[in-house]
Amino acid sequence: MTDTTNQSDQILSAAGQSLQVQRSGGRHRPGESIGQGSAGIKTKNLLKKVRNVVLAVFAIWLGAGIAGAMFSGIGFWGVMGVVVATAIAIAVFSSFPKVKVPKRAELTQGKPQQMVARTELWLEAQRPALPPPAAKIVDDLGVQLDALGLQLETVDANHPSVREVRELVGEYIPETIENYRKIPEHLRKEAHAGKNADERLTDSLGKLSGEIDRVTRRMAEGALDDLAIKDRYLEYRYGGDELLEELNQSGRKD
User: How many CB atoms lie within 10 A of CB 118?
Assistant: First the structure.
């Protein structure tokens, strides 16, 4: 029950963050992670770079130390060579490996949590090409996807909701954005059937954002119901005597 309570708190917290983002008109700057999933991928990549830099520098200086012991020192040019090699190693290994933006076909692969993280990373790569209103919705989607990812951690992989999430997150969202990007930039402001491409993209992403919120709430209903039942039980079990005493005191006053 504690896990359920903590998860419900996390979901409500994520929802509150999403509301704050919407009220402020977006909070993310270009290059900034829109969600914890994509931020986690970047953090793992950064740690890998740090590990590679440390290993490379350690190997260079260890080799220099062994060479110095064998040849009674490496001399001025040897020291300069070590410094240059260290600088090159730091420059190379701090730049590689780069975070790989997943391809469209890769978004629906793997576990649901991995799918959510990859989709956030993919959305970040598309965001600079989107009109500002649509880019703000993409920022909100990052927070919503984080909340959805928390829900997916406790849901069976064969649950119908998981299949719905795969379609929604791995197909409908990227398909909508890709269709928009296929339109030449100079035609995106021209009205077609009552709206231009920018407006249709914003409307579509808004509807998808609402659908993600609906799915998340539906998946959280069980945990919220369990929490409400537990709360009523605890009130009856531990608050019943106090409640009865209050009623008795009220009756005596009357």
Answer: 24
Show the tokens assigned to 14: 């994520």
| Residues in a beta bridge with 195 | 192
* Ramachandran bin of 25, using left for φ above 0, alpha for ψ from -120 to 50, beta for the remaining angles: left
pTM score of the predicted model: 0.73
Tokens of 61: 């200086």
pLDDT (tens digit, 9 = 90+) per residue, 91-111? 999 998 899 999 998 998 888
Helix (H, G, I), strand (E, B) or coil at 101: coil
Give pLDDT tens digits for 177-221: 999 999 999 999 999 889 999 999 999 999 999 999 998 888 877
Q: Give yes or no for residue 247 having a pLDDT over 60.
A: no
Half-sphere exposure of 82 (CA within 13 A, CB side): 18
Residue 91: what pLDDT? 94
SS3 of 144-179: HHHHHHHHHCCCCCCCHHHHHHHHHHHHHHHHHHHH
Q: pLDDT per residue over 135-165, tens digit each?
A: 999 999 999 999 988 888 877 777 777 888 8
Structure tokens at 77: 């040019």
Distance CA 248, CA 242 (A): 10
What are the beta bridge partners of residue 192? 195
Among all chains, which residue has been given the structure tokens 């994520």?
A: 14
Residue 234 burial (CB count, 10 A): 10
Looking at residue 177, its amino acid is I
C-alpha 171, offset from chain centre: 17
Spatial CB neighbours of 211, under 8 Å, sequence gap ≥ 6: 168
End-to-end CA distance of the chain: 41
